[in-house]
Amino acid sequence: MNLKQQAISGMIWSYSQQFSTQLISFLVSVCLARILIPEEFGLIGMLSIFIGVGSALFEGGLTSSLIRSKSLDHEDYSTVFYFNLGSSLIIYFSLYLLAPSIADFFHQTKLIAIARLYGLTFIISAFGAVQNTILTREMKFKKQTLIAFPALVISSIVGLVSALKGFGVWSLVYSALANAIVTSLFLWLRSDWYPRLTFDRKKFYYHFNYGYKLTFSAVLDIIFSNIYQLVIGRYYSSATVGYYTRANTLLMLPVGNVSGALNKVVFPLFSKMQNDIDQFRAAYKKIMLMVLFIISPIIVFMAVAGRPLIILLFTEKWLPVVPIFQVICFTGILYPIHLYNLLVLQVKGRSDLFLKLEIIKKLLQGAILLISFYYGFFALLWGQVLFSTIALLINTHYAGRMLKYNMLSQLKDLFPILLFSLFMGITISLILYFSINYSSLIQLTFGGIGGILAYLTIAWFFKFQSINDITNIIYKR
């Protein structure tokens, strides 16, 4: 199988996994949102920064080093496995000891027990991290799909049954634990690789030297990505955290589906063509435009039709989510562009530059956060949009230099998609205005059909290349 066939096959199975798992996750989250109250989602949201940091630390960025390395042996994998496992144990016990302080910070005593039980997912996930990395490196996404899907089904059943039995926030914890246990178990049962009792210091230093910078960058990104939950949880109510968390979860449904699934294929694919700058640039441009072409209209539709969408999915008790969601949708459109610019730095081995840029951006984000905080909750959200825009310009500048595809050229190529999406948004707004007296389902149906037709029509009229690229992937495998 050549590189192109691998990429197409990888996309198909990666998307199969992503869409199937996300569809189930979304349906389960809708059911849970109807059963549970916003405050209970808010409690998990308060812990998101600690859970995210813990997950980034136990992997140590070494798994990324495994994916991009050209030649590996059993000692490489075993060394990273034991490092991950040891790190996860240290991180869990650190969280266990810090749990009372976390609870005091948020004035929520329930967080002590929640943090200590949820933290076990670090240790459980560490057992399968290397096996999953090997599947990604070898682009065996079909096998990953056959592991992730049953794990999600089982964990979803656990969460729903627990919620119906009245366990409240604990149903979310039990579901996360069940997913980690089943995923790691299946990775071991279906893997051709098992760790040996060996730890090579030279190989560890090699992978650590590349990975620690990415780890530190990931930790910074997680802290500042979740710092809004931290600030909101400290100075506002747990219900407000729940609303913000729900808005983020809804936004990441399309963004995570398209960008996340493709990222699993793109990283190993880009790594194989990193020395051919022309091929690298052409692939990067095609993928970035195609992803934005898919994501942009979805986010525009969800933002414009936010009110009927929230009512239909989560009932009117979640209506405070609507204005929050509509603001942060601006960051969602920019997310895939951020992602692929940063991937360029990783593939080219510039983890040092990656780290420097993350430090600069987080200092900038901290300054914007401090200023916007004094102007209220929604100023915090608009500050998030401002930071995302500035960070995009920084990422695009440095990645563009490596690809010989500068920032202005990238923005010029992306501009038509944003213009098409604006036209689509106006169309949907008009449809919703004239159907305001109808049910949420009817508004969404006619708004969605009208918006998509408007978007595709104008894209077809201007002969936008991404339409042909997507068609070729579907019909010419």
Question: Can you walk me through this structure?
Answer:
This protein has 477 residues and is an all-alpha fold. Helix content is 86%, strand content 0%. The protein contains 20 helices and no strands. The radius of gyration is 22 Å and the shape is globular. The two termini are 12 Å apart.
Provide the descriptors you would attach to this structure in a database record.
477 residues; mainly alpha; 86% helix; globular
Give the CA-based shape. Answer: globular
Radius of gyration: 22 Å
Alpha-beta classification: mainly alpha
Low-confidence stretches: none
Which sequence of SSEs, written as H and E, runs from N to C?
A: HHHHHHHHHHHHHHHHHHHH
Helix residue percentage: over 70%
Total DSSP E strands: 0
Mean pLDDT over the residues: 82
Topology:
Blueprint: H1 3-35, H2 38-59, H3 62-68, H4 74-106, H5 110-118, H6 120-126, H7 129-137, H8 141-164, H9 170-189, H10 201-225, H11 227-235, H12 238-272, H13 277-304, H14 306-314, H15 321-347, H16 351-373, H17 377-403, H18 407-434, H19 440-461, H20 465-475
At a glance:
The protein has 20 helices and no strands. By secondary structure, the protein is mostly helical.
